[in-house]
Request: fold
Amino acid sequence: MDSHTVMYGVFGDPVRHSKSPVMMNRAFKETGLNAAYAAFHILPGTLQAAVQGIRALGFRGVNVTIPHKEEVMLYLDEIDEGARQIGAVNTIVNEQGKLIGYNTDGIGYVRSLKEETGFAVNNKNILMLGAGGAARGVVHALAKERPARIWIANRTPERARQLAMEMSHLADIEGIAMTEVARVAEQADLIVNNTPLGMHPNVNETPLDASLIGPHMVVSDLVYNPLITRFLREASAAGARIHGGLGMFVYQGAYAFEYWTGIPAPIRAMREAVEESFALHAG
Ligand code: NAP
Reply:
């Protein structure tokens, strides 16, 4: 670092577990950019001041994570149309003092799905499990790719219906209760877990009865700790093609990198940095 170093960071609470700094600093190193990325623990009530700090200190970009993705929208100068429809911002670009908010979670998910499994969304049936913050971005991005139909199943069915209604201008989407999945699962070409079920330390949990999974399906999990969840293990045993959550994390960061720098993200190095960091902490 020197007096020309361009600064970046992630705002979250908690934030010390974040793999974004190791991933992004590896991306800067790999592309030879004089830039640095750190994690900032932004406590409740201090987000507005932190956002003003982006302008005052001349940071080029910031990622925003839980629990600030919605509130941060109040403090930005412009919000990308996709992020507005999703209702959350995870990436801020500082254009000479003008702060623009984007959401790269959903598009990161779809790019990862396509590049890692070859799945084409067009004309396919999709079953989404969960209707929380992450599901909003993923449903939005999938709905824009002309699927035949999306079912959103959620423990709290009103939330699934609400999300389906908000995205209904993009595709044929129905919100259902989690207890209704058996009715539709067989017709699904892609099943996505958007719930935290199966995430460390609750690794024995799973969002779906494995008997509903067939060999014609792609089965995808947003959870990436562990890299292979019980849901994915059972799907693989049922003959389905599986897709883990690490790719979504890497590609949401790749899109942010590309918005900030205008150059292609070094995807392989970014993924490697996160995998190494997991291995280090596991050992
Ligand atoms: P969230 O906003 O809290 O939503 C959680 C969702 O899971 C809701 O639909 C909730 O249902 C459901 N749920 C929670 N506990 C459940 C249970 N015991 N049984 C059934 N349903 C349950 O969380 P989020 O931010 O969307 O994150 C969801 C998951 O995605 C997390 O595991 C997170 O790690 C992962 N994620 C991964 C990435 C990535 O880059 N790979 C990015 C973002 C998130 P109700 O509505 O009924 O409460």
Observations:
- The two ends are 30 Å apart (CA to CA).
